[in-house]
Each structure stands twice: as C-alpha cells, then as structure tokens.
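Data deposition worksheet. Section B asks for the primary sequence of the deposited chain exactly as it was used as input, without tags or linkers unless they were present during the calculation. Section C holds the resulting structure in token form. Section D is free text for depositor observations; keep each observation to a single sentence. Incomplete worksheets are returned to the depositor.
Section A, Depositor: J.P.
Section B:
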Amino acid sequence: MDKNSVIGLVLIGLLLIGYTMYQQPNDEEIAQQRRINDSLATVSAQKDMDRQVETFKSNDLAVAPDTTAEDSASTALRNSALTAKYGALSGAVEGEEVEKIVENEHLRLTFSNKGGSLVRAELKQFNTYDSLPLVLFDEENQKFGFEFVYPSLGKFNSSDFYFTSSTGKPSVSGEETTQITYTLALDGGRKIENIYTVTGNTYDVGYETRFNDVSGIITEPKLIWELSARHIEKGIESERTKSSIFYKEQDSGRDYLSETGSDDAVVDEAPLEWVAFKQNFFSTILIGNQPFGKGAELESHPYEEENDSLTQFYSAIIPLNADGQAFSGRLFIGPNDYRVLKDYGYEIDKVINLGWGIFGWVNKYLVITIFDWLEHTGLSYGIIILILTLIIKMILMPLTWKNYLSSAKMRVLKPEIDVLNEKNKDADPMKKQQATMELYRKTGVSPFAGCLPMLIQLPILYAMFQFFPSSIQLRHEPFLWADDLSAYDSIASLPFTIPFYGDHVSLFTLLMCISTLIYTVYNSNNMPTQTQPGMPNMKVIMYIFPFMMLFFFNQFASGLSYYYFLANVISIFQMILIKRFFIDEEKIKLQIAENKKKKAKLGKSRFQQKLEDMAKQRGLNAK
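Section C:
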C-alpha cells in the first residue's frame, strides 16, 4: 500500500469519527428519549393491565391469579406503570369494594370503601306509591366525591379510589352516635379522610373531608355531587314539576332553579350555606357548618317523558378548600316536613313552597297551626280537612257576612240603577258616571264594599292551594274512594289521553267543579252584574270558569280538590241561611230611603263636586 492510500484511509477514518461524534445526542436529547421510552413502556404496561382486568370481568367464574407466582419483573413493571399514571395515589387504584350498612331510627345507610362515600339511603318509615321500600338514592343514580387536579398527572375523582375504613356500630338509636372514617393513604404518611357520623334519632349524617399534608398532590378540589331522582310518587308528571335545586347564599334569602324545566346557575356573588336536591315530598340537603367556597355551579333538568323510572337530574359542583379541613357539615336525607326542617335553621324549611309573602305567613301561622292541632286528635285526614274547612269558614264569617250584606244592598238598589242607566243611555259617559255616584252617595251604598272582604279572603284561598299539594302528612292517606290525598283520585281510566286533562277521571275534581258552578249560578242570580259597552259579559266568563278548573285540577292532589269542594258547599249553605234568616231586604229598602233623606240635606259631596268641575272643564274645552 503506497503512501497516498494510507493517507486516504486515515482521512476517511477521521471523517467517520467526526460524523459519528456529530450525530451523538446531547444530554438533553438522551433524557428526552428516555422519557419517550418510559412512556411507551408505561402505555404498554397499562394495556397489559387493562387486558388482564377485562379478562377477569368477562369470566364470572374466573379465579384470582396466584400473586405468589407472578413474575417479579412483571410486578415491578406494573407498579411502575401505576406510579407513572397515578403518582402518590397508585396504592389505592386497585382493591375490593366492601360495603357497610348503618341504621338509625329513620335511615338505613350503605357506605362503600370505593370512594369512601355514602352510596345508598333508604327511609325506613316511608314507602313508594307502589309499596316498595323508599330508596332515595343508590350507587346507580348518585355520585358523591371530590374532583381535584394532580399537577403533571391531570384530573382525578375520589370515587375512583379505594379507601380503608374504621369500624363502627351497625345500629344506633336515641342519642347514640357511631362514626365511620374512610382513609385514602398516600405516600409518605399523607392521607385524605372522609368522616361520617350517624346519630340515632335524626334524618341527617355528619360529613367531613380532611386533607392532611397533600400539597402538590391535591389542587383545585371541587365537590362533585350528582343525583338522578327516582320515580316514587303516584303522578310522575306532578312529581317532575315539583322537583328542583334549592339553595341559600350567605346573607341572602332562599333561591331555587326552575321547577318547570331545565335551568342552571353559577353562584359566584357569595358562598352557599346549603344546597338541596328537592323532590316532591323528600329532599337530600347538603348543609355546611361554614359557608362553601364561591362559584358553585348548579344544574337541574327533568328527564324525558319516555323515562318512567327517573324524574329529575341534579348536579352541584362546589369549590373546596385544599388545605386542612376541606368540608364540614351535614347531609340531610328525609321528608319535606315543615316541623322537621324548621329545626335546622338557615331557612331550610323554605324548600317547601308554602307561597311567598302573606300567602306563606297564612300557611305557617294559621293553616299549619290548626292542621297540626287537629292531627293530634287521631282522626282521619279526610275528617281533619273537613274540620279545618269549617274553622276557616268560621274565622272568615264576619267578612262573608259583610260581603253578602253589600250584595243585598246592591240588589235592592239595582232597579234604580237600571232606571238611571236607561235615562242616561245617550248621555255623556262622565255625566252618566256622575249620576250613578250621586245615587250611591244619597243611598249610602258603596259598590266597592264587597271587594275588600273578597280581597282579604284571597290569601287564604291561595295559601290552601300551596298547602295541600306540599303536605307530606297527606301522603298515602286514603279517604273514601281516594287512595292517596296527596295525589289525584281516579275513579275511571280512559283508553286515551285528553290534552291538558289526562287519561283518568278525578271524582273530587269533578265534584269541586259542579259545586263551583252551582255556587256561581246561585251567587250571580242574587248579585246584580253591570255590563259596559264593549266589555265581555262577566256572567258568561263566570260560568266558563268551573269547566276550566276541571282541566286544571284533574292532576292535582285530591286533598286540595276535596277542600275546595267542601268550601263551596259550605258557602252555598251560608248564602241560603244568611238570605233567609239574617238579611231582610225590606229593612234595607227602608234604610236606603232614610239615607236619601239625610244625604239630601248635606248637599253635594267633594267627589261629586270634583266630577262636575271636570265635566264643566271638558265642556269649555269642547267650545
């Protein structure tokens, strides 16, 4: 080999060495490649784990693998994959679900170590409309846990992990208490605790979540609470329209989402004190010992009509504190009973819609007081409603008397009014009105005297409309042909559905409408009705109204229709008795004549003089 060949080979070698050194990855590139390889290994290991889990799930008779025979290298790879995906939570990813049942005087509660939460609640003293145990929620239609962000790993929910649990009493009564603590152990002695306290004689469960030294693992925690309400009452349509989310902000009154359709809200002006998933007669209410974090997200919507097992979907996302005690409060699981809820304070009793303003006051301080007193007699609820109606009618008797007396005066005066209207039929409306008011002044009869008594009675009328459909005391209580005074009474099922009416015939509703029609006919015959040109005939409207009520009340609680039926019957008898024995129209005529003589000496009233001045001014303007 000559000299030139040797030099060429050396140069080629140097070029190869230089190229190799140039292509050699730096430290950063080596680390990047290592991360890629680790990720690929993690994904591969996770796929192997998923296939193994699916194999176990697909075979009901599968026997758990012998972990003692598992290859140590495979175990290490598996643990490495879990650590890469779940970090300090990897030890709680796998486990066996174990449930614990705790009972008190009112509730049968089921807790699960998966998620460390309450998964099922049964009210022992109540049944569904078809006599089944009343389960307010179970693991299939309720989710209760906290979601959080694990930096660099993503979002997780506590309901996906297995907790360890402490032992507690399986049953308590009276003032006895038992406590169950669920612990999610993390690396380095760090932990998350869910603590539940059950007392023997209450409808609530004490609930507390604690985060112990979890900085860097638990960030942005939020309580995720979702529930699908089960169909438990007789009329599912009515049940859907009485279900929604109620809540109370700090330093504000109770508020709620729409009860008639889908609705949502972000409550960021103030923290919440409580939030309730309210159903027709039962509620699940989360009550904080301190206000929740701001920015709660609430959502409620009814299920489609085709779904005959679920009525309403509820969702609440509530921000929590990531340091120390994340949440402390109570979970109420029980009836919408005014007396029960009143004891909790915080206006929780307002999940029962007794009406706003004066209507709610009438229910709280009059109707409920009388109803509770009658309830202690042990009488049938049908008889209690009858006595309640009689008491209310007696309370209103002075107003009723004044209303009938005013009607009698107007009836006696009607012939003179008719003559006056005929005489001034072609006159200026102002002059006609002036003449009519002069007649009222001379006779001492006020056309508005009967209005005030009627207005005063309206709050009670509307209060009863709110009271009966929301009174849990009437739930499943039979009377005569009605098997449940809190739901519609059906004496016949129709083979078709009538729009706005339904597919059944409610007898109490039918009786109420018939009695309303009789009352209307009798009352209109004894009360003069004046019609103005261009105005609808009020008598026709009054006769149509009872038929409209037939459609409106057919789906309502039979206790409400029964009350209105009784009120109509009593009112008819009152009219007959007052007219026959207490009101003498001849004496009224004499009194009116005497009033005419007295008022004739007094001259014109200020109101009449004002009307005349207005008429003169109008005439001057016309010129």
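Section D:
The chain has 15 helices and 21 strands.
The CA atoms of residues 247 and 275 lie 4 Å apart.
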